[in-house]
Amino acid sequence: MKGLMMDYALTVPSILRRAAQVYPEKEIVSRMSDGSKVRITYREMYERVIRLMNALREMGVKPGDRVATCAWNSYRHTELYFAVPSIGAILHTVNFRLFSEQVEYIVNHAEDKVMFLDSSLAPMIATLQPALPCIQHYVVMDDKSEPPTVTPTPFSDYEALLAGASSIESFPDIDENLACGLCYTSGTTGQPKGVLYSHRSNYLHAMGECMTDSFGISERDTVLPVVPMFHANAWGLPYSCAMVGAKQVLPGSHLLGSPIANLMESERVTFSAGVPTVWRVLYQHLKQHKHDLSSLRLIVSGGSAAPLSLIEAYKNDFGITLTSVWGMTETSPVGTLCRPRAWMDAWTEEQRSVVLPKQGIPVPGIEVDIRGENNEVLAWDGQQAGEVVVRGPWVVSDYFKNERTEATLTPDGWFRTGDIARMDEYGYMEITDRTKDIIKSRGEWISSVDMENLIVQIPKLQEACVVGRTDVTRGEAPVVFAVLKEEEAEEGVKEEILALLATKFAGWQIPKRADIHFIDAIPKTSVGKLNKKALRATLEEGS
Amino acid sequence: MKGLMMDYALTVPSILRRAAQVYPEKEIVSRMSDGSKVRITYREMYERVIRLMNALREMGVKPGDRVATCAWNSYRHTELYFAVPSIGAILHTVNFRLFSEQVEYIVNHAEDKVMFLDSSLAPMIATLQPALPCIQHYVVMDDKSEPPTVTPTPFSDYEALLAGASSIESFPDIDENLACGLCYTSGTTGQPKGVLYSHRSNYLHAMGECMTDSFGISERDTVLPVVPMFHANAWGLPYSCAMVGAKQVLPGSHLLGSPIANLMESERVTFSAGVPTVWRVLYQHLKQHKHDLSSLRLIVSGGSAAPLSLIEAYKNDFGITLTSVWGMTETSPVGTLCRPRAWMDAWTEEQRSVVLPKQGIPVPGIEVDIRGENNEVLAWDGQQAGEVVVRGPWVVSDYFKNERTEATLTPDGWFRTGDIARMDEYGYMEITDRTKDIIKSRGEWISSVDMENLIVQIPKLQEACVVGRTDVTRGEAPVVFAVLKEEEAEEGVKEEILALLATKFAGWQIPKRADIHFIDAIPKTSVGKLNKKALRATLEEGS
Questions:
Q1: Where exactly are the structural domains of chain A?
Q2: Does domain B367-434 have CATH number 3.40.50.920?
Q3: pTM of the prediction?
Q4: Which of A70, A379, A469, B24 has the most neighbouring CB atoms within 10 Å?
Q5: A515 CB contacts (<8 Å, ≥6 apart)?
Q6: Is the pLDDT of residue A187 over 70?
Q7: Which of A 15-74 lie inside 8 A of B, CB atoms?
Q8: What is the per-residue pLDDT across B430-442, written as a single tens digit (0 to 9) for each?
């Protein structure tokens, strides 16, 4: 028997209307390239979105069409996050930091019809323009950078477009299962794949982020997303902030150190989100410059694991809580979040140090399982490691144009993340590796992440990365790439690494002395992760 | 174009499985009638629910069947909240405090197949049994009250039933739009009507309650629902608590004063929910007895408006935040909640006193409009009053057996609440009356609630109620029923009422001296609201 509740669609335009009606006075603050700030209220944003919706229709954008953005975090990007889905079209946030061949690939693969771009990115896009025949209109957003030397031609100016557009409100009926946004994975293996979010998935993900045990975004928050709006759905923050009327502070293209600290201080930021690199650089800045960041209640760090040392340094030196979040483009992205249980407050610092660096428990809405090599369900005992599989209303089931492979889902329909983890008895997940990065030695697994986490505890080291190389007798053997801190010397460090590893790893797991290399920097992917593929490639070249 | 996210159903059994898997150690504590406490963990609850699901199947309960409960707040009632929907059947929580004819009506109207009842309610149900031919099985739950003198015959014992049931887990696939729960309205006009919740509506409502700006229920909370589990879906708390692993404290049948204060203190309760009467009685108790309630972070008060004096008394005398929530059985029930905006912190106490007694802003998911007599949308200007209409994923569209009338929904599909309210420019709703209670005098409206709120500020008065009587010249005229506090005398009080009303109401709105009556108590409905229908009836008898 059916329930008799309203058939109410969970859609992005309903979030937009709520923001304008219930929180008309709350602000979105944008830092422009020249350091100036632009402030608009949710009510003003709404009126501009109405014009933008009409401008898109004027340009011939139809429901289901893809509209590309190449832009940093700004109020205009937020407007696009709302306007494009509100006419039933699909917002494709292009990660322009990928290789230009990949940008070319994804714009053509998405068949984007219109592209909105920051003026600072105009030269880059102008170069690509001949390879992007699908784009019928370019719209340039003046981000107050130096005037671009070249631009795609012809192009419209964003503000002129809005000024000329109708202000008549017209919202089409939208089914909650319709596509709303499109993000491509960073494609460390093969071509990037498109993840097609629905209105429903974005709405539910936003509700999830406002739950107290997740990000807990509320009207009282001032949120600074350092995570770029062109990556992984901006972690859903444009939608969750608008849903509860949180003030937003958008940093433009200045994402490291001083500009972030200044914005946090001047706008009294309470919540921020970004990758560990951002927090490492900010920490170094804060050690050297005085800032009042007492307004901050929570920083969430995701994309890769935040080391315990960084979590503790923020807490001990600045009283700031930094928490790990785990997810991926395919999970909208929030999947798990690490908050100690209430009863863990009574624990010693040592006991808590076991939990804090974990990726945390599944957020409500997300179910997590760990599976063995034959898809068997493994116990949550803190011991067994298996592949993390997830399901939930904001998890992908298929890639754009149905590019699913057999490896995308388990036979029982869970998404295979490619991460290896243990789950403890209280549901805290600890990622130990990527399936493709794990080192298989003598038929056993060596976790490259466990090894890295141990090695970076050596004070002289800045970073470390462990990958496997082919080994005749063992199958694979671990290789360490280490980056020394400025002004530190190599002397004795190899011995220190080997001695430290011997405290936690079995003899056969420990790398040979010759397999420890010092390099100037670990190569990173376009989204700031350790690029193990590139490091493995250097080993193959050398062999 | 459809989004490519998982088709993941939002269901009650997924909340149950989450509670057992992620929060196995968290507790549900029940106070029994003899004052003892029973503690079970979510893991134990899960195992008992599995047995209960199998026992229900053994009794022949099929998907879509209705299963009645007549029970106070206890862990067994929580088990029923999960087990019945998890086999696809419908949990019908019977409000046994209605008149017995109404209980008889709703059980037969619902065609309940099985009834679970507390042993303390057995005599009452035994009397009704001949009139309830649809019930095929009675199951008695021993709540440690005096052994019942009579019981329905035959009956099973709840614990014996569980002990004899299979422990094999078997969850059917459930569509999120399937019916999950059934609650009847209290039926102040006409027969009670059934509201049929779906799995989706209960799931989304639970997510909503865990949002920081709503109830903000989290793992760190210990929640004491004073609101009965047989009324208005228990305000959704059994589901929201389980979703985030909050500890639950269930008070059984002892809902006033000392037992509540003792439970709050001994279990370190952080959050509680109930009607204003509960909080008024608890306040009186706390004034006379010392309790450490420092663990409480929030009390929400709904069902009728909490007066500012009570909100301020809790804050000033005990440092406890008491907040108004508005909703009804038809809205699952949470619709609006009053939290001052961050920037209102800078306000004076006087300014805040304007906002605090309001019903607050719509919670995310709920849209509110106020409409004029011809369904026209009225502005949110704090001035215009109109009927509150709502829509959202946990709002009713139809009553059970499709007993919708033309007045249920507006022509554009919003639910008509029957409440009259103003909305201010920041979205704060202030209920001024019920459509059926408003007094229409000389073609204008007089708000009975505004008048009551003013009158109860007189220190000698305990309560007041204002209704309309037919008046030859004015159409309707207001009549005041006032209840003096113990040991206070009538002398001079009528004059005080008239003088006070003259400060805020026009001369033609003010009642005649002869229309002010002192009575011993205001009659209440089964859920504790002022029974204006009964008072109007006494006027008609007298005329």
A1: 367-434, 439-541
A2: no
A3: 0.91
A4: A70
A5: A469, A477, A478, A479, A480
A6: no
A7: 17-18, 21-25, 63-64
A8: 998 888 888 888 7
